[in-house]
From TrEMBL:
Cited InterPro entries: Endonuclease_MobA/VirD2
Residue intervals of the MobA/VirD2-like nuclease domain: 44-146
Gene Ontology MF term list: endonuclease activity
Entry annotated with the keyword Nuclease: yes
Keywords: Coiled coil, Endonuclease, Hydrolase, Nuclease
Protein name according to UniProt: Endonuclease relaxase, MobA/VirD2
Coiled-coil segments: 368-402, 458-492
Length: 517
């Protein structure tokens, strides 16, 4: 199956992307591999194209675009985005996937998803550690070079304009993943539903941490063995992986959350609590809890509660799966070529049709219009909630400025008062330049903000901030819940359309027309 990963980079040296994609690198150290003469070694097989640029001058062209639009000047700015599409190794042997085919598909996807951006599209056939899985790197400059038509996945004002910076939002990633899935299904490649959260979620950051940690552990263990001793552990575990392993072990033998909670604490010193409808875990070496979102759906409340219930066969008779889209067999290349595969798809479609019917009945949709109207109303509700959420986030930023400048004003007020009374003001200002500057900065900001001259107290501002933060947290939770609802509604709507289309009989040709022929 094809999977999609995203990495953002603040590295202003665009040449490093070209070097990584063209030349051999050590998987462990990340350093470039050189020959006996110290020259870089080209990768054994790769395919490269440039989008809105010459691939070999990608770095210089990106720098010119940034300079033209006066963007990416700060160190903290995201300079580029790196997307990786990795195809299933089985597609090579079973479906005829090759480097050129993957490059052609990925280039089309890049043109569709990143119009107006300068991009490098490079396909490697070696895979990680020569695993053999074909994968394509799409590296784009974060600043759009040319204006384009507005796309459905764009939700920011002027996002289609030249000079706009790319943002890998959830909406964009979902659109990208959906496009990749549809293309893979058309090509008959192995594919999973990328829109469903992973059971075991491992980010690129955790993957790299595990790799580096294992390397260090191997080095330490080698020294221990050389000293004639036996290492205590041969496998490095990240904190998240430690949590996953512990949760798997305790959940397998627990019949309730209370029992699960006790076992985690007693056996692994892991604290787990339920907060806002989710489980969050505290690793013994951490101060901040890790939520189920960072670990995967397998470690969330919904999955674990079903796990506890399954211990008692009478407690639950049917566990419903997530809604999935019904596959159109008429456009699925692999189904056309393989009757066995088509049969499996038909069985899966029947299951998803059944799940869709259950969903429709449970939510009281009497007609298809009811479902579509609810979908449209939910989209409008989400839009309004997101607008209000954005406004409250803006209000919070202003409130934080109020608190900062009010505190800064009072903290340096006494020094400024002494400065006003000082006989030698120049000398006093020089000795207390920092405090006076902060006071004047705060005073000027507060004057422009409070037009009537009446300031709000720090105590009141702090209370307002706490109240607004609680409201924002509540809205964020509500938006997340509504997005999940929308995803199910959208899937159900598309499946209902597919089911009804399958039931429409083909028009019967009249005998008169047959005779005329």
């Amino acid at each position: 199956m094809a999977i999609v990963k995203h990495i953002k980079s603040r590295n202003a040296n665009y040449s490093s992307a070209i070097n990584y994609l063209l030349f051999e690198h050590d998987e462990k150290t990340g350093k470039k591999i050189v020959d006996e003469s110290g020259r870089s070694i080209l990768r054994k097989e790769f395919y490269m194209d440039g989008l809105n640029c010459d691939p070999m001058s990608f770095d210089k062209e990106c720098e010119l675009t940034n300079a033209y639009f006066h963007k990416n000047k700060k160190r903290a700015d995201i300079k580029s985005h790196h997307y990786i599409i990795s195809y299933d190794p089985a597609d090579v042997t079973e479906n005829g996937l090759t480097g050129p085919i993957a490059q052609a598909i990925s280039l089309e996807l890049a043109k569709q998803m990143f119009p107006g951006y300068q991009a490098l599209v490079v396909t490697h056939t070696d895979g990680h550690n020569e695993s053999g899985n074909i994968h394509t790197h799409i590296v784009i400059n974060s600043v759009r070079k040319t204006a384009v038509e507005r796309q459905p996945y764009m939700d920011k004002p002027h996002e289609e304009a030249a000079g706009y910076k790319h943002r890998s939002t959830d909406k964009f990633m979902n659109a990208f993943k959906k496009t990749v899935m549809e293309r893979c299904q058309q090509e008959g490649f192995h594919q999973i539903d990328l829109l469903v959260p992973a059971e075991r979620k491992t980010t690129q950051k955790e993957y790299i941490a595990q790799k580096h940690g294992q390397q260090k552990l191997d080095e330490i263990n080698q020294k221990i063995i050389e000293d004639g001793l036996k290492p205590t552990s041969a496998v490095f575990l990240t904190q998240k992986e430690y949590l996953r392993n512990a949760i798997d072990e305790c959940a397998a033998t627990s019949n309730s959350f209370d029992e699960f909670q006790s076992k985690l604490l007693e056996q692994f010193q892991i604290s787990v609590i339920e907060h806002r409808g989710r489980y969050s875990y505290l690793h013994p070496d951490r101060q901040k809890r890790i939520t189920e979102r960072a670990l995967g759906t397998r470690y969330g409340k919904a999955h674990l509660e079903q796990t506890f219930l399954r211990k008692d066969p009478l407690a639950i008779l049917y566990v419903r799966s997530h809604l999935r889209l019904v596959v159109n067999l008429q456009t699925n290349v692999k189904a056309m070529q393989s009757p066995a595969y088509a049969h499996r798809v038909k069985l899966t479609n029947l299951q998803q049709m059944a799940n869709t019917i259950i969903y429709v009945q449970e939510h009281g949709f009497d007609t298809q219009s009811d479902l579509k109207n609810t979908l449209l109303a939910s989209k409008q509700e989400l839009k309004e909630m997101q607008t209000q959420f954005a406004q409250h986030r803006s209000d919070l930023r202003i409130l934080k400025d109020q608190i900062r400048y009010t505190g800064q004003y009072y903290a340096n007020k006494e020094v400024y008062s002494q400065f006003s009374k000082a006989k030698y003001k120049g000398k006093y200002r020089k000795e207390h330049a920092k405090e006076i500057q902060k006071y004047e900065e705060a005073r000027d900001w507060l004057r422009s903000f409070y037009q009537d001259g009446k300031m709000t107290s720090l105590k009141t501002l702090t209370l307002q901030k706490e109240k607004l933060q609680q409201q924002i947290a509540s809205e964020e939770e509500a938006i997340s819940s509504l997005k999940e609802k929308l995803k199910n509604l959208d899937t159900a709507d598309q499946n209902v359309d597919a089911i009804l289309q399958m039931q429409i009989p083909e028009p019967v040709r009249s005998k008169t027309k047959d005779l005329e022929r």
